Amino acid sequence: MAADSLTGGQPWIKVAGMGRPKRAADGGLIYHVLNRANARMTIFEKPEDFAAFEGVLEEAVERTKTRLLAYCVMSTHVIWSCGRGRTASCRGLPDG
């Protein structure tokens, strides 16, 4: 998504990331991840929306060498379990 689409084309609006401390990435663990929209709004409306998310998830898994154990994509949220050997991590995956 281009920054212009986030700022409505206004160059003076700065889009800042959400600040929070880095999460622990202890090795050998399995992580349960939940990602949902605010106010339980619909994220995925059409089959193409689900397919697009699955494509992004597949790319992230390959890029980070994360083991995706299971996932479930619903219209209002996504849940998955992942890990990565001795350095288990879900870094780089969509963050919820």
Kindly describe this structure.
The protein is an alpha+beta fold and 96 residues long. It has a single domain (23-96), classed as Alpha-Beta Plaits, CATH 3.30.70.1290. 24% of the residues lie in helices and 22% in strands. The protein contains two helices and three strands, in the order αβαββ. The longest helix has 18 residues, at 47-64.
Give a summary of the structure in a few sentences.
This protein has helices at 3-7, 47-64, and strands at 30-36, 67-73, 77-83.
Note the topology:
Elements: H1 3-7, E1 30-36, H2 47-64, E2 67-73, E3 77-83
Antiparallel strand pairs: 1-3, 2-3
Q: How many separate structural domains?
A: 1
Give the helix proportion (percent range): 10-25%
Q: Could you give a short account of the major beta sheet?
A: 3 strands, antiparallel
Morphology: globular
* Number of helical elements: 2
Spatial strand arrangement across the major sheet = 1-3-2
CATH class label: Alpha Beta
Which residue ranges are poorly predicted, with pLDDT under 50 across at least 5 consecutive positions?
A: none
The CATH topology label is: Alpha-Beta Plaits
The fraction of residues in strands falls at: 15-25%
The total of beta strands comes to 3
CATH superfamily: Transposase IS200-like
Q: For the terminal residues, how far apart are their CA atoms?
A: 17 Å
CATH architecture identity: 2-Layer Sandwich
Keywords:
single chain; Alpha-Beta Plaits; three-stranded antiparallel beta sheet
